[in-house]
């Protein structure tokens, strides 16, 4: 009986071994899937916007930036290009979400859903879906140069040529070179006039000039047509400083004395570096894809999917 019981026990063990191993395999597989899920979750990126209590999912943040930075009635391919540039810019600026970013023009403007509803009013659903689709269709796409995220600067409207980073800041970046941009042909508000009295001018620029002296103003321009230096008598300013002090739309401007007024006429809108938003829209209207737009404005770059850090 002992022998029979032993044989029976041995047969039972042989019979149940496959099930034991199958169960073990299932547990290992489940553990592997759980581990893989943790790895995927570890790659999810969030952005902390200064002034907000909770971090925001990267793609939701990009939706808020595209909504704030580019008109929602622009071509879908232009909106996609803006999404890729905005995503790249925030990841570069915050080291993949490790630091906060200001929701201002100095960085990137960001609109939350409530602000978008207020701004778009009856068009909210249409524009929200359009922007969301543009962002989702480019999910995870960023711009690299030699394997590194670029500083994806962009501006509203060029003067026919974008500005180089060297002209703008003195630092030359190979992907921020001056390129042709025909957006001025499509923008209704390409030129803008702003008038000052002599008292306003002197107060803003901290001078004591007369209108006659201003009639002899000298302006030096760089190779993209933007103002490099403004000279009046012994007074000299950098074009960027004049733009800031007079609150002008761009550094491509001309100054004229008309009667008792000083009239400053600007062309384009913004610092001029990187992608022109109106230029992107013009290119899209002419059949360019988002990737073609990106590679036109950011020379010798690659568009890739985010790799987790």
Write a structural description:
With 309 residues, the chain is an alpha+beta fold. The protein has two domains: 47-185 and 272-305, no CATH class; 191-267, no CATH class. The protein contains eleven helices and 13 strands. The protein has helices at residues 2-42, 58-69, 76-94, 113-120, 124-136, 165-169, 198-205, 211-214, 239-246, 277-285, 290-297; strands at residues 46-47, 56-57, 141-145, 148-149, 154-155, 191-196, 218-221, 227-232, 235-238, 253-258, 261-267, 275-276, 302-305. A three-stranded antiparallel beta sheet has the order 4-3-13. A three-stranded antiparallel beta sheet has the order 6-11-10. Strand 7 and strand 8 form a beta hairpin. The longest helix is centred in the N-terminal third of the chain and has 41 residues, at 2-42. It is elongated, with a radius of gyration of 29 Å. Residues 56-145 form the Sporulation stage II protein D amidase enhancer LytB N-terminal domain. It comes from Ureibacillus xyleni. This is Stage II sporulation protein D. InterPro entries: Bact_Sporulation_Assoc, SpoIID/LytB, SpoIID/LytB_N, Spore_II_D_firmicutes.
């Amino acid at each position: 009986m002992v022998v029979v019981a032993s044989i029976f026990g041995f047969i039972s063990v042989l019979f149940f071994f496959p099930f034991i191993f199958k169960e073990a395999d299932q547990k290992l597989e489940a553990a592997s899937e759980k581990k893989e899920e943790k790895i995927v979750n570890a790659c999810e990126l969030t952005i902390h916007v200064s002034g907000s209590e909770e971090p925001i999912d990267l793609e939701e943040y990009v939706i808020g930036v595209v909504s704030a930075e580019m008109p929602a009635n622009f071509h879908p391919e232009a909106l996609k290009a803006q999404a890729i540039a905005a995503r790249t810019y925030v990841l570069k600026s915050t080291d993949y979400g490790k630091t906060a970013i200001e929701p201002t023009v100095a960085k990137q403007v960001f609109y939350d859903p409530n602000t978008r509803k207020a701004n778009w009013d009856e068009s909210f659903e249409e524009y929200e879906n359009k922007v969301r689709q543009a962002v989702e269709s480019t999910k995870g796409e960023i711009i690299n140069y030699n394997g590194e995220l670029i500083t994806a600067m962009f501006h509203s409207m060029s003067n026919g040529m974008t500005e180089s980073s060297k002209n703008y800041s003195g630092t030359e970046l190979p992907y921020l070179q001056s390129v042709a941009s025909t957006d001025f042909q499509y923008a209704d508000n390409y030129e803008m006039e702003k008038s000052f009295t002599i008292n306003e001018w002197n107060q803003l620029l901290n001078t004591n000039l007369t209108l006659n002296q201003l009639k002899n103003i000298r302006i030096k321009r760089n190779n993209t047509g933007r103002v490099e230096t403004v000279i009046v008598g012994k007074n000299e300013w950098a074009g960027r400083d004049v733009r800031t002090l007079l609150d002008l739309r761009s550094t491509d401007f001309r100054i004229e004395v008309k009667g008792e007024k000083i009239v400053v006429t600007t062309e384009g809108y913004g610092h001029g570096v990187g992608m022109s938003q109106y230029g992107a829209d013009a290119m899209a209207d002419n059949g360019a894809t988002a990737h073609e737009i990106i590679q036109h404005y950011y020379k010798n770059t690659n568009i890739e999917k985010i790799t987790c850090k």
